[in-house]
Design brief:
Layout (H helix, E strand, L loop, with lengths): L2 E13 L4 E4 L6 E2 L18 E16 L4 E4 L5 E10 L6 E6 L1 H4 E3 L5 E3 L3 E7 L6 E2 L7 E2 L4 E4 L2 E2 L6 E7 L5 E3 L5 E4 L5 E10 L7 E11 L5 E2 L7 E2 L4 E4 L2 E2 L6 E3 L9 E3 L5 E4 L5 E10 L7 E11 L5 E2 L7 E2 L4 E4 L2 E2 L6 E7 L5 E3 L5 E4 L5 E10 L7 E11 L3
Parallel strand pairs: 12-19, 21-28, 30-37
Antiparallel strand pairs: 1-2, 1-3, 1-4, 4-5, 4-6, 7-10, 8-9, 11-14, 13-17, 15-18, 16-17, 18-19, 20-23, 22-26, 24-27, 25-26, 27-28, 29-32, 31-35, 33-36, 34-35, 36-37
Length: 403
């Protein structure tokens, strides 16, 4: 093939947990053969900052030129769906490249029909520089005469980092390692200590970030919950975290209001483990209580929260299927990401080649084709979200006469 002219009509990008954003594109045809090894500008736009997980290209037309003639190539789906992750950071430029394999993207059937099934790699060609940030959410509580150890963490900037306390004081007996961010030692005085930590990097000019923290230190032997933060969860994904305590007399008994944890999660009264599968998104705030076996009984309370994020958008990631032959066993699987499994698969338009079936549970297409032809159809997937998410993808299977 001498030329493969492609016209793109539209480009959309999807923000994780957000909505689609449309980007106007250069609608002039570009030649996949002519731009091999070089870059062809497609579009540029200022979009919302955040994490993006998908791009969709609406293809207007494809024309294939050989040494002697030109052919219009059909685009089975009319839209190219690309699943990949990239970050957009405020004040920085993110460059995303679509690496087309021109020759592999055009299929010529036995009947001389040209079909455009693009083979593309999604490349992040420039990683945006991110601002230095302290990522530690909170620091655990402690007790007098009990060894304490926690490490502050930061992201981005240029390591190595330098840590310091810029305001307030650490609990008496504790020190901050300026090179590692480790806070360690043995507390000597009970109380609630509030302070501000500062981190600096080796950028030029130097970047810095500050964050306020607090550490509650209990009296020697007193019961105290050391856990001060819990990890986030995601709708439909298994969750597991454990609340811990020190002091008092074991075994402990843990409790919280029955309706305060995220729906789908439970607290183990003997171990302090919080587990289950979240069924509703949202930010849940609650108070955990622990009691021991002292005489008289000791108890402690700690306010905590868990944020349950929405499930990632359900997306069919398969954009093409292999060809088949009459009389030869066929097997291929349509795949999806996001949503809340298990998925349910179906054909919502068109039909599979005679002799093939779609497994509604696994997305597997299998069987033995009995008739030649190009079969175009739409696959649909639904998940178990409430309300259910769904996605569709136009696909085709070319079946030739077996030899």
């Amino acid at each position: 093939m001498n030329h493969i002219w492609v016209t793109v009509q539209n480009l959309k990008v999807h923000k994780d947990g957000g909505s689609w954003q449309t980007i106007a594109v250069n609608t002039q045809p570009f030649d996949l053969k002519a731009i091999e090894g070089i870059e062809q500008f497609l579009a540029s736009k200022v979009v919302e900052t955040g994490r993006y997980t998908q791009l969709r290209l609406e293809v207007g037309s494809v024309e294939v030129e050989t040494a002697t003639e030109k052919h219009d190539a059909t685009v089975p789906s009319g839209e190219i769906k690309l699943v990949g992750t990239f970050e957009v950071v405020e004040g920085k430029t993110t460059v995303v490249a679509l690496d087309f394999d021109g020759e592999k993207s055009v299929i010529v059937t036995g009947g001389g029909k040209y079909i455009f099934k693009p083979v593309i790699k999604l490349l992040l060609t420039k990683q945006p520089q991110r601002n230095l940030d302290i990522t530690t959410a909170s620091l655990p509580n402690g007790a007098v005469a009990v060894a304490y150890n926690a490490t502050l963490e930061a992201s981005a900037g240029v390591s190595p980092y330098t840590w310091s306390v810029s305001a307030g004081n650490l609990p008496a007996g504790l020190t901050l390692n300026s090179a590692t961010g480790a806070i360690s030692g043995t507390p000597t005085t009970a109380g609630n200590y509030e302070f501000t930590v500062k981190v600096e990097d080796k950028s030029s000019p130097v970047q810095s970030s500050t964050k306020k923290f607090s550490i509650r230190i209990a009296a020697a032997g007193a019961l105290i919950i050391t856990t001060t933060s819990l990890p986030d969860g995601k709708l439909g994904a298994a969750y597991s975290a454990t609340v811990a305590a020190i002091g008092g007399t074991t075994p402990y008994t843990w409790s919280t209001s029955a309706d305060s944890l995220p729906a789908g999660l439970t607290l183990n009264s003997a171990t302090g483990a919080i587990s289950g599968t979240p069924t509703n998104k949202g930010n849940y705030e609650f108070t955990i209580k622990v009691e021991d076996k002292s005489t008289p009984l000791q108890s402690d309370n700690q306010k905590l929260s868990i944020r349950i994020a929405a499930a990632a958008e359900l997306t069919i990631t398969t954009n093409s299927l292999p060809e088949g032959k009459v009389g030869t066993a066929y097997s291929a699987t349509v795949e999806a990401t996001g949503g809340v499994p298990p998925y349910t698969w179906s054909i919502s338009a068109g039909s599979l080649p005679a002799g093939l079936t779609l497994n509604p549970t696994t997305g597997a297409i299998s069987g033995t084709p009995t008739a030649a032809g190009n079969y175009e159809f739409t696959v649909k997937v639904e998940d178990k979200s409430t309300p259910a998410q769904s996605d569709t993808q136009n696909l085709s299977i070319m079946v030739s006469i077996g030899t």
